[in-house]
Amino acid sequence: MDSFPSFLTSSTTLVFLLLLLFSPCNAAKHGTFGHHRRPRSASHNYRDALTKSIMFFEGQRSGKLPPNQRISWRKDSGLSDGAAAHVDLVGGYYDAGDNVKFGFPMAFTTTMLSWSVIEFGGLMKGELQNAKQAIRWATDYLLKATAHPDTIYVQVGDATKDHACWERPEDMDTPRTVIKIDKNTPGTEVAAETAAALAAASLVFRKSDPTYSKLLARRAIRVFEFADKHRGAYSIGLRPYVCPYYCDFSGYQDELLWGAAWLHKATRNPTYLSYIQANGNTLGADESDNTFGWDNKHVGARILLSKAFLVQNVQPLHDYKSHADNFICSLIPGTPSSTAQYTPGGLLFKMNDSNMQYVTSTSFLLVTYAKYLTQSLKVVNCGGAIITPKKLRTFAKKQVDYLLGDNPMKMSFMVGYGPRYPLRIHHRGSSLPSVSSHPAKIQCSSGFSIYNSQSPNPNILIGAIVGGPDQNDRFPDQRSDYEQSEPATYINAPLVGSLAYFAHSFGQL
Predict the structure, then answer these.
(1) Catalytic (active site) residue 36
(2) Could you identify which of 17, 53, 234, 467 might form a hypothetical disulfide with 354, taking C-beta atoms 3.0 to 4.6 angstroms apart as the criterion?
(3) Residue 15 falls within a domain, yes or no?
């Protein structure tokens, strides 16, 4: 809905506007927190959770670790990555509990970390620098992966052989196979997502490091041009390497729209607005698709583009407000078009495998869209049910609180947060003794005795968010259960923004 409900009288409109004005988002802007009124008490220490959610990325680092590395049980690894193809691909992140560097989810992780900082970095205080370092660890790698025109290195490691071993990244002896896309073997989705990541990150560093920011923006432009010109799904040409791990199921149209949206935001070049106008209907056609994650960017693109209309008044993008509203209406229980499924304990449930990624990404979209609505004094109309920004924030908070421990298991799904959290996560480095305590190499198959044991992981991967409970709120905490017990960078990345918002809202930052 693009205006206030007609049934509001002038006096109630004034009250409604005042409520919107002094919502947490605007209260922060006008400096009322910590001065004129105290925020209500929080059920969780969001600041502590924020610190840990960012620290997690240090546990996923590949390459030469810096002196200020906080997760100290991790050591250098993958120092010859890229050598098989005579390129430097040292650095970047392992995506989850294995030792492969997959470019597609790494790029999405980078985009979401950057979006978190773009929207809520101003609230992060001391954590902002850590968040930017997490982004830069990824972008330094993505710049290496895109150094050659019309070529993107999209994977390091043979996933099948890697998954046949249970060994620390520091001990890797499986092939570090280098996989690339080019004109002959295109990969539009991974190329467009990489362009989105570089463009979003260029906004993060615009003030603090303008030279680096310009480099990221220039590379994003070139990579997106390649993605659009040489169209084709990478999971067709590279199927033996990327499937079934990060097969693309949603097509590459969503990444083209998403990439163009980020380039429009980063460059303000009207070419990208024209591209979105000309291609938006075909690229973002399926409005019933309300999933947002590493594979599917439709909803994220709609929310991002709605800001250009709502806040910057870019009129050609007015349709994205209604597209974004449709997503909101599909989520909120009790509205006429609600289709989302929830566990008995109230958790958004999309699928068994790594469901928490959809919880964190959806919660981020809710607090972000609430911010845009507040800035533009708008609401969402779901078939007559008026959804205010406050309701979106309340809904997002319930999801985040469930993740942090308000659930039937009374368990935090973030490792190291709260009194009870997963102890046997599906993660090689965390589950095997660290190089510090066990310098001798642990061979490929030797680690499976620990993998199959019931002993807790010796190394705490602080801040790691696991796949989460099943549709009945059950969580067995078994190392072998990768669907529920494996952490991943793309689960954590969107939560960083939500935690910064709630930490600020409750006066913890």
Answers:
(1) no
(2) 467
(3) no
Q: Is 177 exposed, middle or buried (0-12, 13-18, 19+ CB in 10 A)?
A: middle
Residue 433 host element (H or E) = none
Q: Which of 426, 427, 473, 504 is catalytic?
A: 426
Active-site option among 119, 162, 170, 477: 477
Query: What's the count of helices (H) and strands (E) in the chain, helices before strands?
Result: 20, 5
Find the catalytic residue in 119, 189, 486, 504.
Answer: 486
Strand 385-387 versus strand 380-382 pairing type: antiparallel
Inter-residue contact 71 to 116 (CB < 8 Å): no
Q: In this structure, is residue 485 part of a structural domain?
A: yes
> Is the residue at 20 inside a domain?
no
pLDDT band at 464 (very low <50, low <70, confident <90, very high): very high
Task: Give catalytic status of residue 486 as yes or no.
Answer: yes
Q: Which two tokens stand for residue 482?
A: 């990768």
Number of domains in the chain: 1
Number of residues in the chain: 509
| Percent of the chain surpassing pLDDT 70 | 91
Active site residue 86: no
Instruction: Report how far residue 204's alpha carbon sits from residue 331's, in angstroms, rounded to the nearest whole number.
Output: 30
CATH number at residue 190: 1.50.10.10
Residue 266 lies in a domain: yes
Q: How many CB atoms lie within 10 A of CB 420?
A: 12
> Per the structure block, which two tokens stand in for 71?
């997760």
* pLDDT attached to residue 284: 60
Domain span at residue 130? 42-505
pLDDT tens figures, 153-191: 999 999 999 999 999 999 999 999 999 999 999 999 999
